[in-house]
Amino acid sequence: MTRCPAAAETPLASSPALAQKAGVADVLIKDERMRMGLGSFKALGAAYVIACDAEAGLARARTYATASAGNHGLSVAAGAQAFGAQAVIYLAETVPEAFADRLRSFGADVRRHGAVYEDSMAEAKRASDANGWELLSDSSWPGYFDVPHRLMEGYTVLMQETVAAMHAPTHIFLQAGVGGLAAACAAYARKSWGDEPRIVVVEPEVAPALFASIIAGCAQVTEGPSSDMGRLDCKEPSLIALKGLARDANDLVLITEQEGFDGAAACTEAGFASSTSGAAGLSALLASTTHRDTLGLTDASRVLVILSEEASG
């Protein structure tokens, strides 16, 4: 465990400037930008799974394979390096080469496959089956639940820290890709604060996988152009996350690409520089002017958001 990236609590900050801009009493920001030195909350996920395997004597010399559109791959790579395992990370053609280089800096074998994330994940699964590798995805599908469930357990750490540091907010805005972070945080919030907070799940309007699935009453594969909120640009939900959010979320909100940019810019101006993906929860809050009543927002609301990654993520 001494070789694992340093596990330190991340800060919970209040931003009067963003609260004024949003027209609420307080905006509380759980700041995950420096989690374990990896730049995002994802450090709590895959690396946690590998650490659990290491405690069971299973990680050393094992090869973990995955696809990544961003920070999940870093967590796999860093966890594998820390515990004497190997990492093979599949990237779609659209993922920047700078990110591939960062993965390689942790010793990962980086391979390109397909035009979109779903293509690279299909190849990671095929290669894992063919080579006897351990597939470590942050999503789930029929027959693949145990690993992503363990991974989501890791994400609850950030909410444990948050609950210990504050009283229940009136609202929690949670951005979602496949839904793992949102589902883990929503479940822990409900366990700790009951029905009190209103939980709002936020997706790009071009990738409404959870929204479409909950409206339809079953998992849906959505189609649309790529989103610049790349970490959230997932067209199919995690089944575990979908089930949890159907139970725990009060509202689902879709934001435009421009709203994503505007929210990230507001974060930067307030001293919390993040990407459009990392700031998407806050972006939805700032864009809620026309539907404040629907979301139950007032000038007395106390809103919790998660800044899920650093600006370069």
Question: How does this model look, in words?
Answer:
The protein is α/β, with parallel strands linked by helices and 313 residues long. Helix content is 41%, strand content 16%. The chain is built from twelve helices and ten strands. The strands form two sheets. It has a six-stranded mixed sheet, with helices on both faces. It is globular, with a radius of gyration of 18 Å. The model has no long low-confidence stretch (mean pLDDT 93).
Task: Give a short overview.
With 313 residues, the protein is of the alpha/beta class.
Order of helices and strands: EHEHEHEHEHEHEHEHHEHHHE
End-to-end CA span: 26 Å
**How can the largest sheet be summarized?**
6 strands, mixed
* Fraction of residues in helix: 40-55%
Topology of this structure?
Layout: E1 12-14, H1 16-22, E2 26-31, H2 46-55, E3 63-67, H3 71-82, E4 86-91, H4 97-105, E5 109-112, H5 117-131, E6 134-135, H6 146-165, E7 171-175, H7 180-193, E8 198-204, H8 209-216, H9 239-248, E9 251-255, H10 257-269, H11 280-286, H12 292-295, E10 302-307
Helix pairs in contact: 2-3, 2-6, 6-7, 7-9, 10-11
